[in-house]
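Quick one: structure for this chain?
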Amino acid sequence: MFAHYPVGLPGLIAFGVGGLLFFGALFATWLRGRQAPKAADGQRDRRSILWIALQGVAIGIAGAGRIRVDIVPDAPLALTQAAIVLILMLSAAVLFDRSSRAMGKNWALVARTRDDATLVTGGPFAFVRNPIYVALALFMTAMAIAYGRAANLVIAFPVYAFATRMRVASEEKVLRAQFGPAYDAYAARVSRFLPGII
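Got it. Here's what it folds into:
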C-alpha cells in the first residue's frame, strides 16, 4: 500500500480496548437477535452480502501493511495518536451499540425485514438513517491511524463508500417495499450519513 509512519504502543492499546468494546457490542447484538421471537422474513435482498464483503475488503485495506512501533510510549505524538484512536473507537462502539439496541428485533446482517418489523426512527436513527455504517467508518479510520496506515484511507474510503452506497440501496429497496410512504417520509426528513448533509 502507501507509506506508513511509526506509531506508539498507546495507540495500539487504545485500538485494542476500543475493539474489545466494539466487538463486545456486536456480540451482544447477536445474542439479542438469537433471543428475539422468530418471525418470517418480510422483504429480503441477498445481494447485499456482496456489498458487506466489499466493506470488509475496504476495512482490510485501511489496516494493511507493516506496523512500526518506533515511538516511545510517553512521547507526545504517541499519546496524541492514542487519544485520537480512543475517541474514534469509543464513538464507533457507542454508536454501534445504541443503533443496534434501537433496531432491536429488526437488526439483521443482510438487507431484510421481518413480517412483524417496525420502521425504526428513534435513537441514532433520528439523526441519520445509517448510523451503523458511520460507526464502521470510524472503526476503519481508527485502525488506519493506530497501525500507522492513514494513507491507505485514500483507497479504503472510496471502496468503503461505494460498497456502503450499494448496500444502502439494497436496504432502502427492502424498506420501501415494506413500509412505503412511511419510509419515504422518514428518508425525506433524515440524511443518510451526516445530519443535514448527506
